Amino acid sequence: MFFNSFHFAVFLPIVFVLYWFVGHKSKINQNYILIVASYYFYSCWDWRFLFLLIFSTLLDYSCALMIEQSTRQSTRKFWLWLCVTINVGFLGVFKYYNFFAKSFAALLRTFEWHSSPLLLHVILPVGISFYTFHGLSYIIDIYYGRIKSEKNFVDYSLFVCYFPLLVAGPIERATHLLPQVKRRRKFNFIKAREGVYQIIWGLVKKIVLADSCANYANAVFDHYNSMNSLSLVLGAVYFAFQIYGDFSGYSDIALGTSKLFGIDLLRNFNYPYFSRDIAEFWRKWHISLTTWFRDYLYIPLGGSKGSKWMMVRNTFIIFIVSGFWHGASWNFIAWGLINALYFLPLLLLNRNRRNLDDFRLGINFNSMRTLVDILITFSITCFAWIFFRAKSIADAFLYIRRMFENQNFTEQYFTIERYNYELITLVLVFVFVEWNNRHAVEPISGKYSWLKLSLCLGAIVALGVFSDYKEFIYFQF
Amino acid sequence: MKTFIVFILKIFGLLLITMGLLDLLYTTAYLQSAQRSKIDYLYNSKNKKYDVIFLGSSRVNNHFVPRIFNDKGYKTFNFGITRSRLDESALILKMMIERHYEIKNLILQVDLNINTNDHSEAIRSLFMPYLHQSQTIRNHYKDIPEYDALLFIPFYRYMHYDGRIGFREMYFSLVHKRSNALDNDGFYPLESHPGKMIPADLSIYYPKRNHAYEEIKGLCQINHINLIALTTPMCKNTINRDYFSHIREVYPEIHNFENAVTDDKYFSTCGHMNKSGAEAFTQIVFNAFFKTKSNP
Q: Contact B76/B185 with Cβ under 8 angstroms?
């Protein structure tokens, strides 16, 4: 069941009515309704993986209690590592086993030792990367005494399986979500309206922007051998907007849906393509994952403390692991590595925390410089996305080589019966809207909200892609 | 909560009004357009008289040159549409009858398309703007699963078929941007491609009785149209040419022309001839069934 499906459009109102009209009198009822709804939501992909989700919930819940009850440090450590090993083990088996087996076989082949690796024929349980990280953050926080373990299993289960964030985040923290789950939610019209606006804006991003860009980006990336330079440049730009519209659109729908139930989720995107350097980009892109890696990997590794060499090492580790988290492929590792390389000069020159402030543009030199910085950051981000989107690293290099060598910057007609430039107007309109609303959560609230709402609804039905249904990209991670 | 329910109802109302207005805009744009596709040309024409028309898929669109017939005194138009199947050909013929066309001869391509009774979503979409206006189109599609939604939910048909009749096509129709679909009396010539011809493999095909073809035969009989059903050329390396002899086992009246032109120099791809091939083939078909009129 996808957020942009008819199934979800029926499911959500039913859960909403049950939640506010049947279960509204107590927190327990509200939580039970959300758990049943969440398990149903998850089982729509494959009911068998529901056992994995329940097992993961039980494991984290029990280990957290054991850690808290243990007085000896070694016992606490044992429960922590048991929980981490099993969680990461599941992730490893489902997501990474085949990759390692194939890579190892390929390595052996270089020594002329031919082997046929034993591969697993299992599908990746949807959302496993998200709920595993979700549980890991909880157990690590318990171990370090940052939070108290949750005694109420129902409340804890909801924290893990809450359907708006179950399959593609945001990766929540116990400190943020659990307190909300532990009290009865009262209906708040302002919050619910904001949620509806955010859902509609998320649908605009997904169905109008991302899915339109996907058609063009696929046409370019799937036939890059016959594309000219302009098409290849535009292909990378279209993919940049596809993945942004897809994932931030999903996040908006998740946050908006959750607001309908009176629960706030962590913000996942903050207009990342208006970043002035790559460090700022990473503070604004997939925020819940970036901060997770910062808190549970970068800082335990030493973070920014210690020598320059340690900082550089930690930065490379965090970016490569972040890339690998996206998928078991060398492409994602290369993408992470490229971003680490982008980050390196900022780190060495102590400029990685330079652009923390807000900015406004005027007609002056500083504004021009800011604009140029934004364009450069966006360009290098697009360049890195080529590695993310290409089928293999070799394809990515061939794509880039052709982009520079072809030197033909003219119109080109794609097999999808569209010219390469046709989507630029839509992308520019989207950028204009985002730019003018970059201090808001969504662009519909405020003055003339009904007019803006009708424009968004009009855009969804008139410009949306309905005939060629596309799943959310991040569901595969 | 009451305020919220009213708010949601207002959004649904707004959505419905938006869809209604968009439906009106799109339909108006398509109804006044007659130079974007063969379907809108057909819908916006009436009482046309043709000596010969061609119907079929790209193997008609790219293979029959009406000029050759026109030069010899036969008023001719190529109504072949790339990707269409016999189901759409039948509907085009029905629309012609609805628009009071007078047709003497219909040359219908019946070869690879007889392998299936299915339809083409891409071409079906081109009829959708006229769903409310044309009884013929409604009757043709009344049994498809999404018929009620297409007919009664405003704008649903444009969302369902957004790739072909969505915003882009509506905009071009609105500004009367002409496409090349109607150039050369409907014939779209292909160019030769360098490199080796990749052979077409027909071993997965098997001709079956086709409802749409039989419907076309019936329509021609009732409306006194001389139906010439024929196969069209494939390149010489085609795998399983026996497919064409099997066609005659199912429908003996179909004329075999798959070998009329076979030399690779006449082909753009194995299943589609280039301009020279199309001209040569059209001449062969003309010679087989027609004579030059004394006063062209």
A: yes
